[in-house]
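Hi R.,

Here's the chain you asked about this morning:
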Amino acid sequence: MIVRTTVKSIQDIMRQDVGVDGDAQRISQLTWLFFLKIIDDQDQELELTKDNYRSPIPEKLQWRNWAADPEGITGQTLLDFVNDELFPALKDLKLTGKPGDRRRVVRDVFEDAYNYMKSGQLLRQVVNKINEVDFNNLDERRHFGEFYEQLLNDLQSAGNAGEYYTPRAVTAFMVDRIDPHPGEILFDPACGTGGFLTCAIRHMEKEYVRTPKQRETMQGALLAVEKKQLPHMLCVTNMLLHGIEDPSFVKHDNTLARPLISWSKDERVDIVVTNPPFGGREEDGIESNFPAHFRTKETADLFLALIIRLLKKDGRAAVVLPDGTLFGEGVKTRLKEHLMEECNLHTIVRLPNSVFKPYASIGTNLLFFEKGTPTQDIWFYEHRVPEGQKAYSMTRPIRLEHFQGCIDWWGGKERKGREEGPQAWRVTAEEVKALGYNLDIKNPHMVAEDHGDPETLLADLAKAEAETAAYRDQLKAILAAALLR
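And the predicted structure, written out as tokens:
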């Protein structure tokens, strides 16, 4: 594939540059360059199809005017242009204040972006390689979109950048079960690189979008926020690759920075699909935005409280949460009680520890709930690694077809006809309350392994230790005799 070859060539060129250190910097550098190429290709198409359309980027800074000519500026001249003109101007773009202002998209992407490359000659080589991809060619854009997914997957091994990426099989499964429709307001409050958004777009395009008006309706109902610069830039570029003309709905902000009570009724949403950061702790003062009984520095807990608040009546959510949320006490207990009182927590899919390797090796769960009626029963489904495979890994990751057993069991949109079995069981809300809202409920159908009688095992251990000691004494005697010779 020409796209795969092109991107590999670019990465090889970047490895020669002393300023680019590691996969995360390489991907960041690659993304802002591709962003400018993609938006310029899109601009040229919009200039032909829309009356009075103007690019959000000043003419001198448009890709076509400084990068498209393979014999254009290079060396120190190119570096000076990028560092002293391009970046300062794009970071400080003046906004029009009008709806759909693409200038905001550009400014937000470049707000904290950085040119890591130190060689203007190598930078020119990278630019020329990027020019080989035509993003107005639907086939090339599709191929690049597929390869871009692989680039995002590579983030899992790029230090802490792995926290921004959720395996696409997981996002696709969650979106499929939530089944968003065009016009339903869909929100990801911690969107990372945009995996849930792209899966939602694909799902709606496949199932429901048939006309330009329906596509416009779909795009107009998407909302997302990402706190950190790198994933925000990756997400916006991801949206452009998926044909979204105005990705300004992807905000560069911290969703938790607002007081919980300030989210009004007219800001409520139909759907939340997200994998909030967990294991991390929020900066000082963020927890004061929440009621005293929900205050904590644990990010995942704060997001759960926010999601419950944000959902409309009958709104639905699919959220990735760690085992710690299920069995945790204190604030976590109060949050689970609140969740079950406000929402119907109808399904918890338990995932094996290896799903998020190598970034994290902790147990995770997919919680599905709907707001408006209290929880009566909770169905659990235990997802297992396929037979013949000990764990998921980078070389053998989780795939969507691995969820087929759960999809078959789910019971359609109405979730009817579910049955208990080797991987599925049901627990009543009263049973959960009796357990102090501990949702870490193990599969009752698993037969505990018989490891033998404890007394016998202890006796066997003592015998083995005595034999080991005897062999050690014999070895010492042999070594001592050898030294005396």
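Strands lie at 186-188, 222-226, 250-252, 269-274, 311-322, 343-351, 364-371, 377-382, 424-428.

Let me know if you need anything else.
M.
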